[in-house]
Here is the input.
Amino acid sequence: MSTGVIDGAIYGGPIEYEQLKLNETATHYTRLNMLMPGWTETFLANPEKWNALSDEHKAIMQEATAQFAQDINDWLAEGNQSVVDKGDVFEFATLPDSDSKELTVAAQEVWQEEAGRSERNKKLIDPLVENAKAQGRL
Here is the structure.
């Protein structure tokens, strides 16, 4: 951005932009009104190794992964707010709520297409739809 090759970036929250020092060149940050919680964390395991674990060990891994995801969510939320509270890192703008709602509505075709590909995908999309409804986007 500092050389003018690109004009902007879509990456993450304000805390990540600040940590990468993107705010030194990009002084404006637009909040996209993401549906929260909006973070995802992924745990990958070799199915043969996973299936070889005892139920107790699987439960330990699931609990640890869930705790990790919660910790990351809390860290990002607190970190993003800390950047806002500093008051001088970015000039913030926010999409109007009506635009955010239109984006969510427009995404439904893609969400439903993905949900239709497999039961696994549907299990991931259904909570997104429920969250969007709970937050008045659908």
